[in-house]
Design a protein that fits this description.
90% of the residues lie in helices and 0% in strands.
Length: 163
């Protein structure tokens, strides 16, 4: 009987071991499921992260290209502005030079007009003085001719007052 009780005890122990193995296998299966689920979630998360990283890299590249374009545009605008400023400066210098040239011309013309006026005044004054000098002589000559009844002759061919 003791043998039987050992046999039963052995069977009970074996049954308990089988139950324990089944219980442990269930735990292992649950853990494997959880691991598989976590691995799948991690893979999905990694894929999403990789996609997000790729999108950010593309966005970064696009922004770098935009920066390059903006720098090129800015450089072009700077060059255009420099050229425009140089042109404006040149035009201002030209305008100032033209103003100086015109001022010189006006002053030269004024000097010429003044000199011509002076020449005219001098010539007229000289002629007036000559007339003042000659007139009394002509008057005397005319009066003496009238008194002598001789015809008055002129050597100036009509340029005198009495011709």
């Amino acid at each position: 009987m003791e043998c039987r009780s050992l046999l039963w005890a052995n069977k009970d122990a074996e049954k308990e071991k089988q139950l324990e193995v089944q219980r442990l296998q269930g735990i292992v299966a649950d853990l494997e499921n959880k691991l598989d689920n976590q691995t799948a979630e991690h893979a999905r998360s990694a894929v999403a992260h990789d996609l997000e990283l790729e999108a950010l890299k593309q966005q970064e590249e696009k922004m770098r290209l935009e920066i390059v374009q903006i720098k090129e545009t800015t450089d072009r605008y700077k060059k255009e502005l420099t050229v425009a400023m140089e042109r404006e400066s040149s035009l201002e210098r030209s305008s100032a030079q033209m103003e100086v040239d015109w001022q010189r011309r006006c002053e030269g013309t004024e000097r010429e007009v003044y000199a011509k006026q002076e020449q005219l005044i001098t010539g007229l004054t000289k002629q007036r003085d000559e007339v003042r000098t000659i007139r009394p002589l002509w008057t005397l000559l005319f009066e003496s001719q009238l008194n002598s009844n001789l015809p008055l002759k002129c050597d100036h061919h009509g340029s005198c007052l009495s011709c």
